[in-house]
C-alpha cells in the first residue's frame, strides 16, 4: 500500500506513519531523514544537497524527488510505503505521480490528519523540556505528576524559540496555504481519506486503519 500522510505540524502524522511501518511493514519515508542520511553517507545527491545547504539555500525539488525515487526503489518498499512530509505542494504531488507511473505504481491513499487549530496550538506551544531530565513534556497534556516530578528535582520547564506562539502560528498559516491545493488535488483523484486525529494515539490509529481498510495488526 502506497500512502501519503498529510497533516499540520503537531497533527501526529509521523507517529501514525511509524505505527503503519511497525504493524504492516510499509517503511516510513521522511524527507528530512532521507536528506540527513544522504548527506551523512556522501551520496551523489547528498553531496549536491550539502553544497546547496552550505550556501544557505533551500534544497531543490529535483534533489528531494531524486532521493525519494531512489528510496522507493529499495526492496523493503516493494509492497508499499508511507510518505511523511512529502509532497508539500501540487507540483511535488504531480512529480511523485509521474515517478510512480514510471514504475507502474500508483498511490492508494492520501491521509489527512485532521486536528483543530486550537489543539494544534496547545500541542506545539505547550511543549517544554525538563532542564534536569531532558524529558519532553506538555503543559496542557502531560500528567501533572510528570511536571511536578521535574520541578521537585530542581528542574525548570524550557520552551524552545521554535515553539513560541508567533512562530507556531506562522508555521500553521504556511501549512494551510501549501496544503489546501493538495487536499483538493487528492480529493479530485478520489484518494483523500480524512482521519479525526484528536484523542488517544491508539484510538487515532484505529480510525486510521479503518480509513485505509487495513486489518487489525497481529501483536
Features:
219 residues, alpha/beta, 5-stranded parallel β-sheet, 3-stranded antiparallel β-sheet, 8 strands
Write the layout of secondary structure elements.
Blueprint: E1 2-7, H1 13-24, E2 28-30, H2 31-41, H3 44-54, H4 61-72, E3 81-84, H5 90-102, E4 109-114, H6 117-125, E5 127-130, E6 136-138, H7 144-152, E7 157-158, H8 165-188, E8 192-196, H9 201-211
Parallel strand pairs: 1-3, 1-4, 2-3, 4-8
Antiparallel strand pairs: 5-6, 5-7
Helix pairs in contact: 2-3, 2-4, 6-8
Would you summarize the structure shown here?
Strands 2-3-1-4-8 form a 5-stranded parallel beta sheet, with helices on both faces. It is an alpha/beta fold. The model has no long low-confidence stretch (mean pLDDT 93).
Strand residue percentage:
15-25%
- Which sheet architecture does the biggest sheet show? 5 strands, parallel
Q: Can you tell me the residue ranges where pLDDT is under 50 for at least 5 consecutive residues?
A: none
Average pLDDT figure: 93
In order across it, which strands form the biggest sheet? Answer: 2-3-1-4-8
Walk me through this protein's architecture:
The protein has helices at residues 13-24, 31-41, 44-54, 61-72, 90-102, 117-125, 144-152, 165-188, 201-211; strands at 2-7, 28-30, 81-84, 109-114, 127-130, 136-138, 157-158, 192-196. The longest helix is centred in the C-terminal third of the chain and has 24 residues, at 165-188. The protein starts with a strand and ends in an 8-residue tail after the last helix. Helix 2 (31-41) packs across helix 3. The strands form two sheets. It has a five-stranded parallel β-sheet, sandwiched between helices. The protein has nine helices and eight strands. With 219 residues, it is α/β, with parallel strands linked by helices.
Amino acid at each position: 500500500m502506497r500512502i501519503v500522510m498529510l497533516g499540520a505540524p503537531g497533527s501526529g502524522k509521523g507517529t501514525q506513519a511509524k505505527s503503519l511501518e511497525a504493524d504492516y511493514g510499509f517503511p516510513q519515508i521522511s524527507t528530512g531523514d532521507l536528506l540527513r542520511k544522504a548527506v551523512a553517507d556522501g551520496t551523489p545527491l547528498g553531496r549536491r544537497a550539502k553544497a546547496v545547504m552550505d550556501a544557505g539555500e533551500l534544497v531543490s525539488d529535483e534533489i528531494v524527488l531524486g532521493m525519494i525515487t531512489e528510496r522507493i526503489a529499495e526492496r523493503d518498499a516493494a509492497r508499499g510505503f508511507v510518505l511523511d512530509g512529502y509532497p508539500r505542494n501540487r507540483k511535488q504531488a504531480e512529480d511523485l505521480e509521474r515517478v510512480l507511473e514510471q514504475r507502474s505504481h500508483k498511490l492508494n491513499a492520501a491521509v489527512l490528519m485532521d486536528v483543530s487549530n486550537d489543539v494544534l496550538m496547545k500541542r506545539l506551544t505547550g511543549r517544554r523540556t525538563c532542564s534536569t531530565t531532558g524529558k519532553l513534556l506538555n503543559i496542557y497534556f502531560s500528567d501533572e505528576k510528570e511536571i511536578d516530578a521535574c520541578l521537585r528535582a530542581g528542574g525548570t520547564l524550557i520552551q524552545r524559540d521554535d515553539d513560541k506562539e508567533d512562530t507556531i502560528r506562522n508555521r500553521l498559516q504556511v501549512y494551510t496555504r501549501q496544503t489546501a491545493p493538495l487536499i483538493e488535488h487528492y480529493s479530485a483523484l478520489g484518494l483523500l481519506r480524512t482521519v479525526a486525529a484528536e484523542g488517544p494515539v491508539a484510538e487515532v490509529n484505529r480510525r486510521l486503519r479503518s480509513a485505509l481498510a487495513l486489518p487489525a495488526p497481529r501483536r
